[in-house]
Amino acid sequence: TPNVRPLVAGNWKMNGTRASLDQIKAIAEGVKSPLSEKVESLICPPATLLYVATALCDDSPLAIGAQDCHQNVSGAHTGDISAEMIADCFGTYVIVGHSERRTDHAEADDLVRAKAEAAHAAELVAIVCVGETEAERKAGRTLDVLKSQLAGSLPDAATAANTVIAYEPVWAIGTGLTPTVEDVREAHAFMRAELVKRFGGEGEKMRILYGGSVKPSNARELMAVANVDGALIGGASLKAADFLAIYGVY
Ligand code: PEP
Hints:
Layout lengths: L6 E5 L9 H10 L9 E5 L5 H7 L6 E4 L16 H6 L4 E4 L2 H6 L4 H13 L3 E6 L3 H5 L3 H12 L9 E5 L13 H19 L1 H5 L1 E5 L4 H8 L6 E4 L6 H8 L3
Parallel strand pairs: 1-2, 1-8, 2-3, 3-4, 4-5, 5-6, 6-7, 7-8
């Protein structure tokens, strides 16, 4: 998308111990190049590593974020973390509505929207995930699903600065399968039109990432599709060399 700075983001999911901080160190070093003026980079490690990871990125353009937040600021919610806590650890992004949260924790669009609003209140950038299941795609419902997920999951106050969309077909996550370039083009063009309808000029500049089995060997063709403004990478973000190879396609 013209005049938009792409974002290459890694989602470590429930992977990574202190030993994995070496990978974050290597990524933080690897993105120290003139390319960082043009392309943003982000790793979302598990919450246990958040604070120490941000300290490692002190002198690097690599941003650090979290994988989820609670919709409330604080309180009796055992096991949850708030957007304020993420900001307190110097995290700057949070993923909300990832399909694994939607499935494992029954998170629906209204909750995802509340989490995005909580992120914004803490001055975090929310990465709001949407995507159809295999059954929905087979039934020809992909664009309907994207329309209703965007309508329900995005706050009215979403801007290009505080919100990123991640299109992640559920059947492409962790499977090695990817949609065709033509299918990605269609989905992203559709989402762009929906965003512009609702948010006007902000919708034109809002980044729409593609996620689902992105790896060094397919990143170049996926990132070249119109309205694809970066990647959300699961498995391939765990190894610094793979993440940096994907980042390097720009
Ligand atoms: C993800 O978890 O957001 C993801 C896209 O995973 P993978 O790259 O492993 O398919």
